[in-house]
Amino acid sequence: MHVVRLIAVAVFLILVLPLPGGAAPVMVAKTDKCPVCGMFVAKYPDFLAQIIFADGSYVLFDGAKDMFKYYFNIKKYQASKDLSDIAFIYVTDYYSMTPIDGRTAWYVAGSDVFGPMGRELMPFVQEADAAEFIKDHSGKKLIRFDEVAPDLIQGLD
Amino acid sequence: MGAIEKQRNILDFTLSSLGRRKGKNIALVVVYTFVIFLLASVLFFTHSLKKEAFLILQDAPEMTVQRLLAGRQDLIPTHYIDTIRQIRGVQSVAPRLWGYYYDAMSGANYTLMVNAELNDRAGEIIIGNGVSMRSMSGKRNQALRRNDIIPFKTYDGSVLTLKVRGLLPFASELVTADLILVSEADFRKLFSIANDQATDLVLNVRNAKELSTIAAKITQIHPDTRPILREEILRTYDAVFDWRGGVIFMVLSGVFFAFIILAWDKATGLSAEEKREIGILKAIGWETSDILLMKFWEGSAVSMAAFFMGIFLAYLHIFLASSILFEPVLKGWSVLYPSFRLTPYISVYHIATLFFLTVIPYTVVTIVPSWRSATIDPDSVMRM
Question: pTM of the entire structure?
């Protein structure tokens, strides 16, 4: 019994601790749809973005671009929610394909890599990764979360 | 009830009428069965080969990096790993050690591969089923077992004896048949390979979109290397097996045309005797539809019997008799597999294709001429 508990604690620590705050990224279900474009998200795990609210509910997106569209216009998609209700934002790191914190990630705009919804913001966990990506895939701009503006997102479409 | 009873009676009559022309019909079924057998064999064989290759390569690493020396593959220095690991998008890089060993005693080429599980068990090996059957001790019919000892001649001329620790599982005979897993230390000793060299490097890459970028960077950093993507290997295998299947199909097309001529002859020209039979049946009150029904049953009986026998024989041939007929053409470079049994994979699609290409056309062409003679006046048919 003791051993089982130890293992459970260890698994919990490994899975949850390295992520900011505590809420782990959600597992994508086959029926989850992107609220912005309406496409099924499970088909595009490479670009997955997620917003997790403080009450535990969440929305999934098939790319960082759609996540920002939702973020900038949250009332349009879900009238009952506010930006302050958002607990966590996750995006998928391009190189490791693992979920990373969307607020601290580095984003590259305008590259030759296309997501399911066309031109995308590509997220990176480290600045150096993003810089390398810009060089390899003719990226245009390197920005942080706070610098992403609605104009820029509109410009991608 | 009456309808079924009628069908039954007509079928009964058809079968006994087939029995009356025994020689002709048996000859037809035999040729028909043979054609189906050959076609089905080729289909089963190439399909299984492709499937096996696919299964094996599924777990293969996304990219393999080889070093070339004057256009030939050469040993790769392991310090390349450090520079390649720096490339963004590369999850892991591992060296591999493998090669071929020619055993003069049995005349067989074995594939030797280093397995990490054996690394702290130097002196022991795990062998494939084929190696076990064609034991290097020279005793042909005696399979090697656990704890048996196999002598290897090393590249510096000495003898290295290795103990069999176990046999590889049956899962895929095609690749594991001639495989011997050894420890790294033994492998280096056997082929005199320095510690800082490996056969090739394997890379894991999480993002498939990055593969070509990574490959380009590798060739830029190390111009003497050649990165090979898993998709390229898969495509090559597919092409090779398709090509081999094509060669056999070419050879068989002669047989197939002979069959078409036979079927055409049998189908389009009814013999005078058959015409007379139709005339008599009409005279005693059979309807044209009854005669067509009879001919339909006749055609189906002949072709279904041939079809199922052909498929059954092909299955036996490919999956139980080690495809004796195709062996030399299809097996390729290493013809040394002592017994070569494919894991059976049969797709409904192939069976259906074969069915619609043989049974259906045959049944149809047998009906047309009967319809022609069945519509003629019985009196004139019997007078002929």
Answer: 0.65
A9/chain B closest Cα distance in angstroms = 27
Name every chain A residue with its beta carbon within 8 A of the beta carbon of B91. Answer: 96
Residue A1 forms part of a structural domain: no
Note whether A121 and A65 are within 8 A (CB): yes
- Residue A10: inside a domain: no
Integer Cα distance of A49 and A68 in angstroms: 10
Looking at the predicted structure, is the pLDDT value of residue B80 above 90? yes
Domain contains A58 = yes
Residue A6 lies in a domain: no
Q: Which two tokens stand for residue A149?
A: 């503006």
Chain B partners within 8 Å of A46 (Cβ) = 207, 209
Ramachandran angles phi, psi of B97, nearest 5°? -130, 120
In tens, the pLDDT along A11-64 reads 554 544 444 455 788 888 888 999 999 999 998 888 999 999 998 889 999 999
Q: What gap in Å lies between CA A149 and CA A107, rounded to an integer?
A: 12
Q: Say whether B209 and A113 touch across the interface (CB within 8 A).
A: yes
* Per-domain residue ranges of chain B: 2-56+236-383, 63-228
Q: List residues of B whose CB lies inside 8 A of any A CB.
A: 88-89, 91, 206-207, 209-210, 213
Domain with A42, as residue range(s), is: 23-156
Q: DSSP string spanning B129-189?
A: HHHHHS-TTS-TT----TT-EEEEE-TTS-EEEEEEEEE--SS-HHHHTTEEEE-HHHHHH
Q: How many domains does chain A have?
A: 1
Measured distance CA(B252)–CA(A39) in Å, rounded? 50
Binary contact (B88, A46; C-beta < 8 A) = no
Give burial (CB, 10 Å; 0-12/13-18/19+) of B123.
middle
Pair of tokens at residue B169: 């599982």
